[in-house]
From TrEMBL:
Lineage, broadest ranks: Bacteria, Pseudomonadati, Spirochaetota, Spirochaetia, Spirochaetales
Protein name: Cytidine deaminase
Binding positions for substrate per the UniProt entry: N42, I43, E44, N45, A46, S47, Y48
CMP/dCMP-type deaminase domain segment(s): 1-127
Reaction(s) this enzyme catalyzes, per UniProt: cytidine + H2O + H(+) = uridine + NH4(+); 2'-deoxycytidine + H2O + H(+) = 2'-deoxyuridine + NH4(+)
Keywords: Hydrolase, Metal-binding, Zinc
Sites where the protein binds Zn(2+): C53, C86, C89
Length: 129
């Protein structure tokens, strides 16, 4: 699985986005340690804080299927701006994979690569307790 292929899966995952409020669809594709892949999209709610981001949807699908190891995630937005993970998602992902590679894409598939550790320096995780 190349980075470009993972980004393409994230772009495709936007098709099921439920985002009537922001009208900003997001897709994510997470590569697990065993090479399996889970995708997800953002799902909004009339009670705004109940919405969930694409990357948490993808990772939650994987975790609920027994996956605990993750190497890479691609996140794709729907504007010409690169879609970076929100603060809540950074913390959520840090719990399972502080060394995660994060590919952040715009709506055309142009992407950047960064480590989750760079998005969330000095993060609070299981080791902190
Ligand atoms: N969103 C994501 O799904 N992932 C991100 O990394 C950034 C934001 C969603 C949340 C909301 O449904 C919409 O994008 C606008 O904020």
């Amino acid at each position: 699985m190349t980075d470009k292929e993972l980004v393409n899966l994230a772009l495709d995952a936007r098709k099921n986005s439920y985002s009537p409020y922001s009208k900003y669809s997001v897709g994510a594709a997470v590569l697990c340690g065993d090479e399996s892949i889970f995708t997800g999209c953002n799902i909004e709610n009339a009670s705004y804080p109940c919405g969930i981001c694409a990357e948490r949807t993808a990772m939650s699908k994987a975790i609920s299927e027994g996956k605990k190891s993750f190497s890479k995630i691609a996140i794709a937005g729907s504007s010409d701006q690169i879609c970076t993970p929100c603060g809540l998602c950074r913390q959520f992902m840090y719990e399972f994979a502080p060394d995660l590679t994060v590919l952040c894409s715009d709506d055309k598939g142009n992407f950047t690569e960064k480590k989750l550790n760079d998005f969330l320096p000095d993060g609070f995780g299981p080791e902190s307790l």
